Amino acid sequence: MSKTRTSPRLAPAALPEAPEAEGDPFGLDLLDAAKTEAPAPPSWRMAEQAYEDRFAPGERVGVLPLGALDRLLDYKAPKDGCAPGAFVEVPLGPRQIVGIVWGPGTGEVPEARLRPVSRILDAPPLRAPMREFLGRAADYTLTPLPAMVRLATRAPGLTEGQAMRHVYRLGPREAGRMTDARARALAVLRDHPEMSFTLGELANMAGVGTAVIKGLVTQGAVVETEAPRDQPYPVLDLDAHGVSLTPDQMLAAAALRIGAEARSYNTTLLKGVTGSGKTEVYLEAVAETLRQGRQALVLLPEIALTGAFLARVEKRFGAPAAEWHSGMTQTERRRLWRMAATGGASLVVGARSALFLPFRDLGLVVVDEEHDTSYKQEDGVLYNARDMAVLRASIEKSQVILASATPCLESWHNAEIGKYARLTLPARVGLAVLPTIKAVDMRLEDIARGNWVSPTLANAVAARLERQEQSLLFLNRRGYAPVTLCRSCGHQLGCPHCDARLVEHRFMRRLMCHQCGETQPMPIACPDCGAEGKLAPVGPGVERLGEEVAALFPTARTAVLSSDLYGSAKSLKDAIEQIADGAADIVIGTQLVAKGHNFPNLTLAGVIDADLGLYGSDLRAAERTFALMRQVSGRAGRAEAPGEAMLQTYQPHHPVIQAILRDDDEGFWRAEAEARRMAGMPPFSRLAGIILSSEDAQEVMDKAVEMSRHIEPLRRIGAEVWGPAPAPIARVRGRHRVRLLVKADRAAPLQDALARWAAQFRFPSDLRLTIDIDPQSFM
Ligand code: ADP
Ligand code: ZN
């Protein structure tokens, strides 16, 4: 297992010999790796000093350009020397480019021709553990190092200096007349003497208008000064108490606190049904990590969940966490990037990309809803944030908590064989009990064509309306109808660029392709036969279900929750909060609603089509259906009122439906693990998806056939190759797609073999090769 990398990954043909198969050399079996490394120094900050000797003036350094070049370029350190990991500007031909001092030089350029680094940029250097993480993540995902490094350096402003801005602090005088609003603003300043707030931040935190603060400035109770633009985040109050934990929660929290104190790598699967207090428990680990002077990161699968989480952190610790996701402004991103690097942000909550922030001393990563598929990035650099969190933690000597009611099979298996520790919260808190789950056998229901709510489910909803409780109807299909059919000629409206149907979105009055995003107005005439007024919707989407429900319950207030019905993450968040407050009687939603939102008055969860996921051709179809159905049923009955879940199914005897009904999760995972073991599938083997795409259908198939005929490097490690075959969605955005699947032993050096294999071929410039390690999607 290599320690720090000194050179970026070279072109595949030049890779060094395959390392000895020592366990799982590229894999994430990091518990083993952590054991074989030297004992951890007491703190990374001390380690840094030993590790990170500055380069002396004139010393040869290797600089990784942030552009496309996948190699180190040699330069001389500038006259004051420079730190490893420093961001620098260097001359390249006539230009100046930005790069990172990655380590010692390669020696490729003769001493006489070595040019000096032009300038060190005003940004915190990328620390050794971070560089090692990026290097190993690049190796694992077969990504060129600069592309991986770009994930960690997306925050803007690297080449700008530190500008100043107006901030507000306590002033020397008393405020003349004290109002509630004024008192609140002054209290915020008193509680956070370490902070310099902008006008907006102070107003926000105090919950007052900016005029209140300006008034205090006029009176001299608050003064306006200048401070560097990027300020630390408010310090969390670690002495504040949370709720009093139940005995089970206490045991789990104690184990996690010990994990934080250990300052060594460890991963724990925190399993517990929705509402069992997982968040409450991992916040205890966050507190301990911060007490140790280290930083913590909480990853959430969905931006819409951050609002509730921030509020919770603020309630628990007196100040919110710093947030990181795609909806933030450039200014906020730059601030957080720098504060993560300098320690001015102690708790960060974010989407998967937050894992690439340059934390100064990352002590804890929580991956909440760890089974969620959105942790896998499916375009650009293909990585799974859950697995990368484990990799990063093993390098940073930190703790990982994987929290879920329905962990993915890989995590469940790792806990089962002792690679991960496991903590289980057995019960819901307080009086709340798990919902009873029933199947509605659709073969026996009397239901009109074009309707989807069975009489049994409708009766259950009516009973909730009577009692003024909320119902959720779950259907994992956006839009109005998945298919639009011409009743005259049978033609189905399809996307011109993809092998996919156009989905009607009546709310937007358009047809949309869910593959490429193509939209068109709804035509009046069939594009095939020209018949007018013959186009008819087929099958249900949430919008259409909304119509049905409105007709069934004309006086009920219904709300349809689907990501595309809201203009922004913010408006969606607001809608969710209003619904939680009781603004709707019947909530109709896509999988968005399955993800951890807390609707206290919801006592019925109805699944319109529990069979939807069971037909999937992919490896994880059963697992996903199981997880989703359990998550949806878990929405019901969180507070004191007991909940009920109903699954509409045409296959009530299907093993997955049966496992859900029996609420037998361990039994389900054991059976599923056994099936995977028999089939030699992950986690008992490793897969790589190979996707070739081109606008030329013949060219792409020919190349795939050629690749399948020269598999010597793969055969040498005992790997099997399946395909080529046209991908299930054979054309996306006008590109034809062909897939191969490679399967190898867990211990085999798969990435190295794949790189050697791919290096044998020449690819025409319009043909794209994508290698997806541990694929989630097989489409
Ligand atoms: P999970 O993350 O497992 O869904 P949460 O931590 O969100 O569970 O807890 C569910 C709800 O129960 C929250 O409102 C939380 O504040 C509350 N809760 C959890 N544990 C306790 C406890 N020991 N005492 C009181 N309330 C609790
Ligand atoms: Zn399309």
Any overview of this molecule?
- The chain has 779 residues and is α/β, with parallel strands linked by helices.
- The strands form seven sheets. It has a seven-stranded parallel beta sheet, with helices on both faces. The chain has a six-stranded parallel beta sheet with strand order 15-25-24-16-23-22, with helices on both faces. Strands 2-1-4-3-5 form a five-stranded antiparallel beta sheet, with no helix packed on it.
- Strand 27 (720-732) and strand 28 (735-744) form a beta hairpin.
- The longest helix is centred in the N-terminal third of the chain and has 16 residues, at 247-262.
- The two termini are 34 Å apart.
- Mean pLDDT is 85; it is low at 1-50.
- Adenosine-5'-diphosphate (ADP) binds next to helix 9.
- Zinc ion is lined by residues 495, 497-498, 500, 513, 515-516, 518.
Name the descriptors.
779 residues, seven-stranded parallel sheet, six-stranded parallel sheet, 22 helices, globular, disordered N terminus, binds adenosine-5'-diphosphate, binds zinc ion
